[in-house]
Amino acid sequence: MKIRLSIIILSLIGLSACGPTTDVILLDETPREKTMLIDVYTNYGAIIRKYKEIATISVSDEGWDRKESQLIEKLKTKAREMGANAIVLQGVTETDTGSVPVGGVWFKINERIVRAIAIVYTD
């Protein structure tokens, strides 16, 4: 019984640690204060202000089937931390990362990655 309980507890701890992962490539090293609001664009043509690209950001659900909206919120959070004013969504990629057996049934795992460019307004 103690072994089962230990396995359940370890599994829950592992699941709670499995959040989306974020990768950032800085295009500008200028330190900026955290911003509160982030505009979200789906294309560059919609931006009516002058801007500068400061980073590329990608967020992966690592196969945990997170909704695209959850991943975009993570992008926005990271962009705010960097001092960005907006993000320009670059698209969503889904890749087959393998399968896992659960109770004799194999479940396919798809990793979802959302990418964006963080920008600051220069006007």
What would you say about this model in short?
The protein has 123 residues and is α+β, with helices and mostly antiparallel strands.
Word description of this protein:
This protein is of the alpha+beta class. The chain has one domain: Translation Initiation Factor IF3 (2-Layer Sandwich). The protein contains two helices and five strands, in the order H-E-E-E-H-E-E. The chain has helices at residues 2-16, 68-82; strands at residues 21-26, 39-41, 51-60, 86-102, 105-121. The chain has a five-stranded mixed sheet with strand order 1-3-5-4-2, covered by helices on one side. A hairpin with a 2-residue loop joins strand 4 and strand 5. The longest helix has 15 residues, at 2-16. The protein is elongated. The termini are far apart. 20% of the residues are buried. Mean pLDDT is 83; it is low at 4-17.
